Write the structure tokens for this entry.
Amino acid sequence: MAKVTIKDVAARSGVSVATVSAVVNEADWVTDATRARVQRAVAELGYRPNRVARSLKTQRADAVGAIVSDVTNPFFTEIIRGLSHALQERGRNLFLCDADHRFELGDAHLEMLIEQQVDGLVIIGDSVREASLQSYLRRRSHVPVVAIERDYDLPDVSCLLVDSEQGAYVATRHLIEQGFERIAYIAGPQEGAGSLTYGRAMRTAGWRRALAEAGLPNDDEWLARGTFRYESGASAMRDLLSRPVRPDAVFVANDMMALGAMHALHEMGLRIPDDLALVGFDDIPVAALVAPPLTTMAMPKRRLGRAAHDVLRAHIADGPGYTAVRRTFEADLVVRASSLAATLAG
Amino acid sequence: MAKVTIKDVAARSGVSVATVSAVVNEADWVTDATRARVQRAVAELGYRPNRVARSLKTQRADAVGAIVSDVTNPFFTEIIRGLSHALQERGRNLFLCDADHRFELGDAHLEMLIEQQVDGLVIIGDSVREASLQSYLRRRSHVPVVAIERDYDLPDVSCLLVDSEQGAYVATRHLIEQGFERIAYIAGPQEGAGSLTYGRAMRTAGWRRALAEAGLPNDDEWLARGTFRYESGASAMRDLLSRPVRPDAVFVANDMMALGAMHALHEMGLRIPDDLALVGFDDIPVAALVAPPLTTMAMPKRRLGRAAHDVLRAHIADGPGYTAVRRTFEADLVVRASSLAATLAG
DNA sequence: AGATGTGACTTAAACGTTTAAGTAAAACCA
DNA sequence: TGGTTTTACTTAAACGTTTAAGTCACATCT
């Protein structure tokens, strides 16, 4: 009934535990004969090394922890996939925690991952408060942290971001090139006074820049706000359509809201893109599946996950003196039917 | 630079490590004065107990491991959410691993979770081979295992399943009640000779039963096969429509394929449900978001996750002598626009 | 007053590994 | 041949906790 340990293997194969350890860890000094005897004992007893004991002794976990703000969001799961693959290749494991949009939960997960002695941390989306992270980083020793799509103003954390301003600019340019002239924008929540001059908030700026450049109107008359969730996209759309001048195209700050907007348009009997063109942001998998397929700015999701791994690995290798990096990725325009000029689409 | 341990706290507060341990674990015999002194030292040093050391000593991890066949599949992430919440409430942690449909990966994850000494295992979907699991369970001691939506023929693993036959029956009955008479079925992959008489494979049987009962045709003329993926749903739909007699409704074995079928119908200019009604299975979140919203059999996803936790907890409490259970859940019909009789919808 | 009990700790072993340091035999060299 | 090096191990301490067993001062009982 008892668990089989390295001692049992040592006893059965008639060698010391150190030798068994050497065989298990593929040290080069063991003779073939001894190695074979030990391996036989390992197989016969079904011995598996205890990672907990090993971690305690070696002071490494060969694992990293990740906290994601919403594990049911396809955008994040793609990132996780990329991260998970990269780790897998190196034989590292991933402890994944879902914060479900609740900061207390995210903070609790952070604490537990630290106690678990992971070798590094990945924070995906807005799941951990800056204050909590900061108080951890102030400790005498801490593991490297990299954040994805979350911009921390902390010197020790690396941030992997997407250039939202540029993405929004490209998306809007695309609509302009398709010949649309009244291009509205459905934004995320109102950013707090100057505090969030990063990430998704910058999409507004990109939209403005493209319109200004083309001499098109870009004032608040053409701007509506949502919460990044599906339902809010639908109501923002209805809001826009109720205004004096109807837009002929809408750029939406993320795909979930774009889908909501699409739903509202369907309900009102308006056709996409004939009556109104639509461009989203993120390129979640469903974007290609709806009718019509949604034009969107593709986030390099898997690459973000993989890059998080690479950066973390480098930091771990560099030891406590690592220097955090800040990397910006570009979003790519994926043209689908929802944004094609009526003349082309028809 | 060094990590702060229980010894540092003991030294600073002038007590033994045993006392610090007692304070941290809220033993009741410590005086208020001592407790305060220790807590102050803990706060001042920023001490966090090392879970690895604790696990090694206590022989528990206060964590369970889960292996999911595809972390990007919304169906599974909902289950994970349920599991994760339940664990959270008990202060237990979740180690989540993504097998990405690759059995070698799933098996490797199984091995590593075992080495990590988790208190229990949850296997979600088809991610771990029966042989691998069996060889683990043959070991002298093992932790409890519960599988969700995967039917293992192993006496020590608990299985949480959904009654697919019944679900398919209900879905088909619904179409019959709406007045449809030529009800086709898009199934999953052909089940291997007699081997998969469980799970999703049983949906064919439920469809047949409902049709037979109503005296409607249910032979292979009305059956097409896919692979449970989006694209295969589209081609299966095209296949069905190319046959001599066109169906007026289609029941699809899962939502992803149903969405694919929907896409094919849009392409061909056919209207849903007017020209052809559609019912899916799973109720993934997008099902409600497409146009028209998809009628489907809702899987109790969160409940499955929560139930996995409950069963696991019971098994852990029962110790090595636990008796595995087999529980079947019902899928609920969720009626949306895609299946409403033309007369009602119009 | 002496025995007994209780409260508030401390001591030290243990959990299952890894690994630096030690050792004994064999191989090599002059 | 005698000394040195190499090979193939073994010994034992350490990692950071928990916890059973021990201790010692003090209160309580008869």
Chain B touches chain A through 57 residues (CB under 8 Å). Chain B has a mean pLDDT of 91. Residues 3, 5-7, 17-18, 21-22, 25, 49-58 of chain B lie near DNA strand D (CB under 10 Å from a C1'). The longest helix of chain B spans residues 301-318.
